[in-house]
Amino acid sequence: MLYIVTVIVIVSLLEQTYAVPCSGQQISVCECIDTLVDCENLNLTTVPSNIPITTTKLGLSNNHISTIAEHAFVDLVSLESINLFDNALSSLPAELFSSNINLKIITLQGNNLSSLPAQLFSSNTNLEVINLFKNALKFGGLVFLKHKPGVYKFGFQYFKQFTTRIVFVEHQASDYVKIFFNNALSSLPADLFSSNINLESINLGSNVLSSLPPELFSSNTKLRTINLFDNALSSLPAELFSSNINLKFITLQGNNLSSLPAQLFSSNTNLEVINLFNNALSSLPADLFSSNINLESINLGSNILSSLPPELFSSNTKLRTINLFNNSLSSLPAELFSSNINLKVIFLNSNVLTTISANIFGSLTNISDLNVENNPLVCCDLKDFIEWLDLQTKLTEFSGQCTYLANDTDIRDFNTSECIIPESCKHGDTNKRSDGEWKIPRKWKKKPSPLIFELKSSMK
Known about the structure:
Blueprint: H1 2-18, E1 20-21, E2 31-33, E3 36-38, E4 57-59, E5 81-83, E6 105-107, E7 129-131, E8 143-148, E9 151-153, E10 165-168, E11 177-179, E12 201-203, E13 225-227, E14 249-251, E15 273-275, E16 297-299, E17 321-323, E18 345-347, E19 369-371, H2 383-390, E20 397-399, E21 401-404, E22 407-410, H3 450-459
Parallel strand pairs: 3-4, 4-5, 5-6, 6-7, 7-11, 11-12, 12-13, 13-14, 14-15, 15-16, 16-17, 17-18, 18-19, 19-20
Antiparallel strand pairs: 1-2, 2-3, 8-9, 8-10, 21-22
């Protein structure tokens, strides 16, 4: 025990003495720890001069730097990571990083950048991370440094322990992440990423992009993740993703897309997740997902879809989750899910469905979560669906109500035997009340059955 304590004390003392003031004019306010230079939280207005040329990690975050000279980092050829988080930068010199060919991580989060020079990253072919997002606490934009198995920490203060991978919190699967999150970028040069051939993830979320050049990602064949959520995109070039054959995740959530080119995803056979939540899509091409044979999740929630092509998901046999929440669907094609034998989760809530046929789910035996809430479903039109529900042994999460006698009831609690109506009553919509239940023809009022008596009593 004494030996262990002694070792810990010695190591602790070594760590404390290892961080020393850097030598040289201006740079002396910073701390030097081997090849790491820490100039964070010092109220600096300019980049210090005399940064050691052996520096591999440079921290300049949480200062008041508003401009950077083009030659500020010209001698730092060994630089691997630079952190300029939370400064006051509104623009960057085009040649700022041109000498830093070993750069892997650039953090520019929390600045006021509204545009970027086309050649800004043209010399940085080894780049793995470019971080331009603004709020490190906002969901979907955190970058974590994995310095131990299963342990993730954020920030420059952990660069000292950084060893292996960068993990993007949304998917926790990317080795190379490029993030442009929550800035004010309104447009991008067509060749901005043309030199970054090793990129695996690009996050352009929470900007104000209204259009994208068709060739923007054409050089990035290793891309696995593209995040374009929360922009102002109203349309997309058909060839935008045509070179990205390794793409697995595409997020287009929170834009103004009203339609999509049929061939938009035709080259992306490795796609696993497509997120189109919260757009303005009113219809979809029948073959939109026909090439995406590895798709596992499709999110089409919060659009204005009123109908779906029967064959929309016919090629997606690996699908596990489909989200159609908050659209305007009044009916579903009987064969819509016929090929999706691995489907586990379906969200159909907040549409205008009045009935759901069990035939739609005929080939599905693995459903674990089904939500049909907030639809004007009529209980007595759901008999086969309710019978199907009772047979689903894997369905652990179900939500849905229907209307019977002007009252809402949980679908699973409804007794379909209450819906026995003489055949002569069933003459189409003319014999239904406004709430969808059957009207009582005048001739049946003369000799009321128990069912008729219950109906009359409830209408008084």
